[in-house]
Request: fold
Amino acid sequence: RSSEMPRTLHGRARHRLRARRLGHVDGRDLLDGVSRVTPVAPAPYLSHRVDGPVHLKCENLQVAGSFKVRGALNRIRVLTAEERMRGVVASSAGNHAQGVALAASAAGIASTIVMPLTAPLTKVERTRGYGADVVLAGEYYEAAYERALEIQRERNAVFVHPFDDPFVIAGQGTIGLEILAELPDVDTILVPIGGGGIISGIAIAAKAVRPSVRIVGVQAAGAASAVRALEVGKLVALDRATVRGDGAGVPGRVAVLDLARARTRTFEAVFVIGLEQGLGEQRARASGACAAVAG
Reply:
């Protein structure tokens, strides 16, 4: 058992305070009332495959279906009264859309979400169901992103970026705090990389509590912008991302904020072979499990 992280409520509160002092939100302040602390579940099959204990952080059980609501909540909670009056705008193929819509509705703020025409119908309808005004634009995410920026300028609204924002990154970092509260002796945390927000947040928060923890990024071979960026030490733009499934790959490049935090907090990105086969809409969520099995 690590002496850094006692298995007590007192120890958990102390480490949340440490994270707050480093610029992160208090996990309970963020989660209470809207999102939830998701379980850290043992994974017997994966543990058997790798001959060691493996656990899964079940963010598929999060409200709105993914971790994205954490960052959206944290970004919206710091808006000024004047900014709240102007409303928020975001672009997304699905998960960030639902997270922003839910967070905005919970705060009583108007939201407009621009989604590509190819976004899954179920995610479009869920986003509307959370109270957002949904605008469909473009075949791919880049076109939806550009249209969202146009709407933001037209309305003087606040744009909630899916990953390149310090408050969004801090919100995602609460996942790292929760993992360490449940598994204080964890050696390695595998984190999927799309735009890089979740791994940046987890790396900062987890290493603030347990500096020795190893953070390993997992990215699809067809959208390996983070892998290449860490190899050459600078941002790398991709012409296209050859991966199916929203969230599994972000065309273009990982964010400036994310790369800076990744380099200073030491994580390594790895390829995931065969991410395209047989995983349906859950490809991005399964990437960590794929990497664990691949070794």
